Amino acid sequence: MMSPHFQKLLITLFLMLIISLVVLALYCRNKSQSYIGTGRVAEIEAWSIKAAFSWILSGGLSIGFILMIL
Q1: What are the residues whose beta carbons fall under 8 Å from the beta carbon of 21, sequence distance 6 or more?
Q2: Which long-range contacts (CB under 8 A, 24 or more apart) does 35-41 make?
Q3: Rounded to an integer, what distance in angstroms lies between the CA atom of residue 57 and that of residue 65?
Q4: CA 67, CA 7: separation in Å to the nearest integer?
Q5: Which residues contact 10 (CB under 8 A, 6 or more apart)?
Q6: 10 Å Cβ neighbour count for 8?
Q7: I want to staple 51 with a disulfide (CB 3.0 to 4.6 A). Which of 14, 17, 18, 29 is the partner?
Q8: Residue 68: what pLDDT?
Q9: CB under 8 Å to 42, separation ≥6 — which residues?
Q10: What share of the chain is helix, strand, coil (3-state, %, to 5)?
């Protein structure tokens, strides 16, 4: 069994990871939107894929975090 302080540390680190992934996803989405109209389709697709991957990963971690708490 983990001590309460260690549990709080793990929860804080996990929440920081999820928040940073959401921020990364928003950044990638905005970067993808900034290339629209320039003809740089490869850049648009690359940043869009990075954003989608970040959203999926943060969603999966959130679900795992909720299940871990329950």
Answers
A1: 54, 57, 58, 61
A2: none
A3: 12
A4: 15
A5: 2
A6: 11
A7: 29
A8: 84
A9: none
A10: 85, 0, 15
Give me the residues of the chain with pLDDT under 50, please. none
* Token pair belonging to 7: 């549990």
Prediction pTM value: 0.84
Q: Give pLDDT tens digits for 45-54.
A: 999 999 999 9
d(CA 54, CA 18): 10
Would you state the pLDDT for residue 69?
A: 80
The rounded distance, in Å, linking the Cα atoms of 11 and 59 is 16
CA dihedral of residues 10, 13, 17, 23 (deg, nearest 10): 140
Paired tokens of 68: 């871990």
What's the pLDDT score for residue 2? 81
